[in-house]
Amino acid sequence: MTRGFYDDLAGTYDLLYADWDASMARQAKALDWFLPDGLVLDCACGIGTQSLGLALRRREVVGTDLSPVAVARARREAAQRGVRVSFAAADMRALPFGDGTFAAVVCADNSLPHLTTPDEMRAGLAEMRRVLKPGGGLLISTRPYDGTRPGSQPPSVKHAADGRAITFQLWHWHDDGERYDAEVFQLLPDGDTWTVHTRQMTYWAITRAQLSPLVAEAGFTDLRWVEPEDSGFFQPLLVAQAE
């Protein structure tokens, strides 16, 4: 379900933003402050929002994503901007790199909660730790799920610039009260009318109290949460260091 969602969305993913390039630059500036020197892995790169932004700030970046369609677009976007980023299709639970390859791993924009069980989450975090050098940095961002449970809904509508798209979501909560299916509606102009595209994916609304111990268990220390007003990033950041 997750791969199919992002395969289908890759062509219009940038329309989730009012101004994708401005968002790319803003997010990269916020993340860059927390990253050590050295090679960075963006392990859920999508079409390149964080990868390209960091590369434009002269970071050496590798991007991976579950969706090969998104990865193909990220490559095209990098070429158009004249930046060098190595991209590959890969599941974050089975990263195609040797131990200790990277100085930092980024998993941004609520990507980690696509792993919807503790065991899946452990597998993803273990891989991030494995490919990090000792002392390497980990950056994870999630939606602010603390206090978000059945009945909660996301912000209602996003408008892309110049009337190119309208996007909104509905959340359908599972009986366990922790997981939900996000039904994403994207309206694209089609002459005098609009075409509606509907896609669905599942998330775990994991709280900080649930995620932090899993990160520590995977071999990370010095965990801290940084709020958007302090980081400049649009979601809370979990910052940690590989043992």
SSE inventory with pairings:
Elements: H1 2-9, H2 20-32, E1 40-42, H3 49-56, E2 61-65, H4 68-81, E3 86-89, E4 102-107, H5 118-131, E5 132-141, E6 158-159, E7 166-173, E8 179-190, E9 193-204, H6 208-217, E10 220-226, H7 228-231, E11 237-242
Helix pairs in contact: 2-3
What can you tell me about this protein's structure?
The structure is a single chain. This protein has 243 residues and is α/β, with parallel strands linked by helices. It has two domains: 2-145 and 206-242, Rossmann fold; 158-204. It is 29% helix and 31% strand. The chain contains seven helices and eleven strands. It has helices at 2-9, 20-32, 49-56, 68-81, 118-131, 208-217, 228-231, and strands at residues 40-42, 61-65, 86-89, 102-107, 132-141, 158-159, 166-173, 179-190, 193-204, 220-226, 237-242. It has a seven-stranded mixed sheet with strand order 3-2-1-4-5-11-10, with helices on both faces. It has a four-stranded antiparallel sheet with strand order 6-7-8-9, with helices on one face. The longest helix is centred in the first third of the chain and has 14 residues, at 68-81. It starts with a helix and ends with a strand. The mean pLDDT is 95. Keywords: Methyltransferase, Transferase. GO terms for molecular function: methyltransferase activity. It comes from Amycolatopsis xylanica. Residues 40-136 form the Methyltransferase domain. InterPro entries: Methyltransf_25 (IPR041698), SAM-dependent_MTases_sf (IPR029063).
